[in-house]
Amino acid sequence: MRSALLQIDFHILLPHILLAGSAILVLLIDLLLPASRKSLNQLFAVVFLLITFIVTVFTLWTDPRTSSMLNGDRFSVFFFIIFTTSAVLVIMTADTYLRRNNINLGEFYALIIFAVCGASIMAAAADLISLFLGLEIMSVSLYVLAGFQREKPASNEAAMKYFLIGAFFSGFFLFGTMLLYAATGTTVIYNIIYFANSSNLLFLGGSVLILIAFAFKASLFPFHFWSPDVYDGAPTPISAFMATGAKAAAFAALLRVFFYLYPLMGLSAETALWVVAALTMTIGNVLALAQSNLKRMLAFSSIAHAGYLFVGFLASNEATVQAIMFYLFAYTLMNVGAFTVAYLINVRGEGGYQLSNLAGMGMKNPFLAIVMAVFMFSLAGIPPTAGFFGKFYLFRAALDSGFVYLVIIAVLNSALSVYYYLRVLVIMFMQKETDLPSVKYNLAVSTALILCVIGILNFGVFPGSLMNLLKLAGL
Q1: 337: which residues sit within 8 A by CB, 6+ positions away?
Q2: Which of 139, 147, 176, 349 is positioned for an S-S bond with 357, CB 3.0–4.6 A?
Q3: How far apart are CA 158 and CA 246, in angstroms?
C-alpha cells in the first residue's frame, strides 16, 4: 500500500484535491455561520477558488506532467483557468440573485466548486474511465443546481429533464467505452488512438456513441433540444455556468479523445460531422431570432456558438486547438456577463426575462446598458471585441483545412446573429421606458461585469497576448 502511494504523482492530483477540499470547507463553514452572515459563503468560495487557481498555475504550468489516468499538462491547466474564471464570475454575480430568491445557501457554492472539479478532471483525463468520473461529478452537481429553486416548478422541471436526458447519454458514453475496449483492449486514450482501425465496426460504433455523448453536453444538433428549457428553468447564474464552464468541459473532452481519433474514422464521419456543424449553427441562430425572452435567446445563441466551435474542431490542426481555447475563454466572459444582466433586469416588469423589460435602460441605467452592449457586440463577433477574433481564428483554421463551404455557412450565420444581438441594443437605447423600476445590484456584481468587459476589450484589441500563451498549451 505504501509503495503504491509513493507511485502516485500528487502534483497532477493537486488541483482536483484542492477543489474537492474547498467544496467541503465551504459546506463546513456554512454550518458554523449564523443566518445573518450567510453572504460570507460567497467570499470564502471565491477565495478558495483563487488559491486553487494560483497553486495550480504555478505548479503545473511551470512543470507539466502526465500519467496513465490524468494529465497535468498546459492544455488541462488552461481549461482549468476557463472553468475557474467561469465559476468565480458566476459566484460573484450570484449573491444578489440568491438573496432575492431566498436560496442563499452554502450548498450552492459548494456544488459549483464540485462542478469545476468534475470539469477539470474531464479536461485532464488520459483514460476514458477517469473521463467518465469527471463527467459524472460535474453532471450530478449541475442536476442539483438546476433544481435549486425547489419551490419553482420551472426549476424542478429543468432539473428533471437534465437528469433524465443526461443519464441516458451517460449510458451512451459507457456503452461506447465498452465497445472501444473490446476493439482495442484498452481505455487509455492515447493507446486507443494507436490501436485504432477504421475497418473495425466495434471501434467505429464505440467512437460514434462517445461522440454522441459529447454532442449532448456541447448542445450540438440533434442533441441540443434540452438546453433552452433547462437554461430557462434553472437559476440564471447556473444557466451561465452551464453555457460556459460545462460547454468548455465538453469541448475539452472532445479534443482530448477525438483530436487524433476523428481523422481515423474516415470520410463518412467527416461528412456527417460537417452536416452537424452546419445545422447546429443554423438552427441555433434561426430559433434565437424568434425569441422574445432574453434568457431563451441566449440559450439558442449558445447552441449556435457550439456550432462555430465545432467548425473549428473539424479542421483538426494545431491552430484549431488554440482557436477553440481562445474562443471559449472569450465566450465565458461575454456569456456570464449577458446572463447576469438578464437576471438583473428580471425584476422589472413581469419578471419573465422579456426583451421589452430592457426598454429605456440606456437612460435609466447607462452602466448596465453599456456593458450589455459590449457583450452583444462580442457575441455577434463585431470588432474590436474578443468575440471577433475568436471567430476569426476558428474560421481561418477551418479554411486552412479546406472547409470553405462550411466557413461560408458559418459567416452567413454570424451575420444573421447580428440582427437579434443588435435588437437588444435597439430596445435599450431607442425604445421608451414604460414606467419600470430601477435595477439594483451590489459591488461584487459591478466588479464582475467590469472584469468581463475589460477582458473582452483587452483580448479584442490585443488578441496576440492570449494567443502567444495558447501556443504553449496545445495537445
Answers
A1: 89, 371, 372, 374, 375, 448, 449, 452, 453, 456
A2: 349
A3: 16
H or E element, residue 345: none
- Number of helices and strands in the chain (H, E): 21, 2
* H/E element, 66: strand 65-66
Strand partners, 354: 293
| Per-position DSSP letters for 263-329, written without gaps between them | GGG-HHHHHHHHHHHHHHHHHHHHHHHT--BHHHHHHHHHHHHHHHHHHHHHH-SHHHHHHHHHHHH
Burial of 378: CB neighbours in 10 Å, binned 0-12, 13-18, 19+: buried
Q: Closest Cα partner for 11 from 57, 51, 50, 65?
A: 65
Contact 170, 122 (CB under 8 A): no
C-alpha cell at 335: 456569456
Closest CA to 279 of 331, 212, 232, 224: 224
Side-chain half-sphere exposure of 435, counting CA atoms within 13 A: 0
Q: What is the pTM of this model?
A: 0.90
Cβ neighbours for 456, distance < 8 A, ≥ 6 positions apart: 330, 333, 334, 337, 374, 375, 378, 385, 386, 387
Q: What cell numbers appear for 91 in the block?
A: 459566484
Residue type, 23: A
The count of residues in the chain is 475
The backbone region for 386, taken as left when phi is positive above 0, alpha when psi lies in -120 to 50, beta otherwise, is alpha
User: Of 74, 32, 77, 28, whose CA–CA distance to 52 is shortest?
Assistant: 77
pLDDT digits (tens, 9 = 90+) for 306-362: 999 988 888 877 788 888 999 999 999 999 999 888 888 876 655 677 788 888 787
| Phi-psi sector, 266: left (phi>0), alpha (psi -120 to 50), beta | left
Q: Which of 19, 46, 31 is nearest to 443 (CA)?
A: 46
Q: What is the pLDDT of residues 198-241, one digit of tens each?
A: 677 888 888 888 888 888 888 888 888 888 888 888 888 888 89
Rg (CA), the chain: 21
- Residue 354, helix vs strand vs coil: strand
In this structure, what C-alpha cell is assigned to residue 408? 461560408
173: cell is 458514453
- Angle formed at CA 309 by CA 308 and CA 315, multiple of 5 degrees: 100
CA angle 259–262–266, rounded 5-degree value: 150
Tell me how far the alpha carbon of residue 169 is from its chain's centroid.
18
